[in-house]
Structures are given as C-alpha cells and as structure tokens.
Amino acid sequence: MMAESGAHKYTTHSSSILVRLGDKAWEIHPDGDKENRFTGEETSAVTPEDSRKVYMSSEAVREAVRKTVDSTNDRRLQVPSGQFGRVPRFANAPWKALMMWVAKLAASVVYTLFPRKGNRSLAALQGGLSVGMVFGCIAMFLFHQMSPAAAADLENTKTTKPQSTHVAAMTTPTRALNLPGNHVYFVTLGTYATEAKAKAAAASAGKQGVSATVVPMNGYAVVASGAVVEADANALAAQLRKSHLNANVASVVETARPIQVLGNADGSTITATQRWLAQTSSGLLALDTWLSDHGRVVDAQTALALAIKSYPGDAAVAETGIGSQLTALQASLQSANQAFLQRNQTNSMKYLIKSLIELKNLQGIN
User: What is the Cβ-side half-sphere exposure of residue 10, based on CA atoms within 13 angstroms?
Assistant: First the structure.
C-alpha cells in the first residue's frame, strides 16, 4: 500500500493504513479491534516498521487530526509576523480603501434614512437633509476643481450665442419703403384707455341710431365718420351734439414717410408695393368724398378698383418683412369696396375708417 506524508511517499507491505500530518504519524488498522494508542512523539522519518507501533480507528484518527490542526494553528499565531515575511503592497490598495469608505458611507446613509427604532418619519427627514447636504458639498467641491481653462471655455460658450445673434441682427440689410401722406378729419365720440370701454360707448351710440367704429388712436377712439373737408366734419359733429352725444372733430394728418423693410426684397416688389399704397390712399379719399355727398360714384368706384387690382400679392409683400400688416390693409380695402358696391354707407364708413388707421399705423421692421 502507498502512504503519503507531505511531499514524501512510503511503501509498506502491511495491511494497515499510514496517516501522517506534519510531524505526527498514525496507522489505521483495518479491523479497528486493537487498542487505540497515540504516542505524540515527533518522528523524523516514517518507516514501515515504525508504522506498526500505533493502531487507531477511523473516528480516533479524525479526532486526532482535528486536535493536531488546532495545535498547529495555535503555534503559528505565536510566531512573530516578521518571520513570515512582509505582506506585499498592491498598486490598487488606495482603491480598496476608497471602496471600503464608500461601503461604510452607504451603510451610514441606509441606517440614517431607515432607522430601526424611534420616529422613522422624523429620522428619515433628518437623514435625507443630511445626505443632501453631504452630496451637495461633494458636488460643489467637484465643481470648484474644474480647471481655469474649462471655466473659461464655459464662459465663452455662454457669451458666444448672444454675440452672434447681435451681429446677425446688425448685419441684416434693409431698404426704405415710402408711404404716401394724406389728411382727413374724424368725427369722434370720445377716446378711452381700454378697448372694452370704447366698445361700450359705441354700443350706447348705436342705441341712438349712430353707427361708430372703435379704432386704436390715442388709446381707443370711437369714430362716427370721416371727411376730407373740415367743414363737412364740423357740420356732422354739430348735428350729433344735438342728440346729446359728445362729438368732436379730430384732424388726422399723415405725412409721407419712409419705413424700413427687409433688404432682400426685390426692387420691383418695392416699387409695386409703393404704387399700391399710393393708389390705396387715393381710393380711400375718393370713397370718403362720396360718403360726404360731394363726390361722384364713378370716381370712388374707379379709384377703389384700381387700388385693389394693383396689389402685388401676398407672396410679394411677404418679402418686405411686414407682410402681415400689408395683407390686413388689403383685406380692409376689399371690405370697403364690397360695401361701396352694395351702397351700404354704414359699412363703407366703418371699413374706410379702419383702412385709414391701418395705413397710418404701418411700421417697419425696426
């Protein structure tokens, strides 16, 4: 039979089994009927003849092995650590320490947020505030660790976009669009700070049989009529005052002036738009004259038709950058012409006043 002892092997012709652990040796007899004896003597070498001296059962062998292991461990603990050599330091030792610190921090957070005893709600609130303060401090520390170059890049990023927008706005080309001048007289029934009050005054005048239109002029004005000749406006105002209405005459003067539009508009578009605006002003004055009973129907009809026909189109006026204002004026002009064709003086005056105010309030892109 082959028996193993440490790194050495021994061959024996005995029917027993030799067991060796450290410096102790036992022989297990297959019958297990001999007396169990353990000498505890240290042996320098084991021979087949020596192995016949000790006979133990398997249970006794296990107990002996356990005692021997315990005894060996006790002796190793008594040996100074220097005899075993210095423990090598690994390159990742700081990371291990960091991981241990993180684990302890996580455990502290859990125990703070979820205490085992006491008022859980209050403790959780206090713990949450504490944890928030800790992580806030960490975030502030990391933020302040940014390099000056990174901070400079961040600052440049913040200021780049507004600067480029300002340059783009300053370099946008513009050109002038000339507006025509005119002079009319409005018979007003008062001006108000709010549109609601002006509409209430217009409704009150309507109950007395006087049609009035609310327009944005000096706040909100209630306009009953318009006239090209001042005397006609004064006569109508005097007649309305007899009906206990606060009627007054307002002179509305619009001088010819240029406004700025987008410079990428085609030159022919600018010319066509200026021609249309001039013909619109003439058509409105002709309509106003007809409403005052001093003009001929054919003059108003011709002037209005020419103004509507000369409109450049929505796509063309959109190139100017003020297309919404110009299309609104064209819509009011068409409504005035439609009312004129129906010989509806009330609606004709209403859209006449609206068109004159829209023409007066035209504004450029700047």
Answer: 20
Q: Give dist(CA 331, CA 355) in Å, integer.
A: 9
- Helix (H/G/I), strand (E/B), else coil: 4: strand
Mean pLDDT of the chain: 75
- Percentage of the chain beyond pLDDT 70 is 57
Query: Is residue 360 a contact partner of residue 230, using CB atoms and an 8 Å limit?
Result: no
Looking at the DSSP bridge assignments, the partners of residue 18 are: 27
CA distance 6 to 45: 11
Angstrom distance (rounded) from CA 194 to CA 354: 18
> C-alpha 75: how far from its chain's center?
71
Q: Please, what are the domains in the chain?
A: 2-81 (no CATH), 93-137 (no CATH), 175-360 (3.30.70.1070)
Residue 272 CA to residue 320 CA, distance in Å, equals 12
* Cβ contact 287:305 at 8 Å: no
DSSP structure class, residue 86:
P
Identity of residue 272: A
Res 273 pLDDT > 50: yes
What are the strands of the beta sheet with 213-215, ordered from one edge? 213-215, 220-227, 182-192, 248-254
Q: Three-class SS of residue 210? A: coil
Q: What is the pLDDT of residue 33?
A: 46
The helix (H) or strand (E) run that includes residue 17 is strand 17-21
- Find out whether 190 and 281 touch, Cβ atoms under 8 Å: no
What is the radius of gyration, based on Cα positions, of the chain?
54
Distances (CA, A) of 200 to 190, 191, 203, 346: 11, 12, 5, 19
- Answer with the residue of higher pLDDT: 35 or 115: 115
Which of 295, 300, 308 minimizes the C-alpha distance to 335? 308
Residue position matching structure tokens 């652990």: 21
Query: What's the pLDDT score for residue 113?
Result: 57
Tell me if the pTM is above 0.70.
no
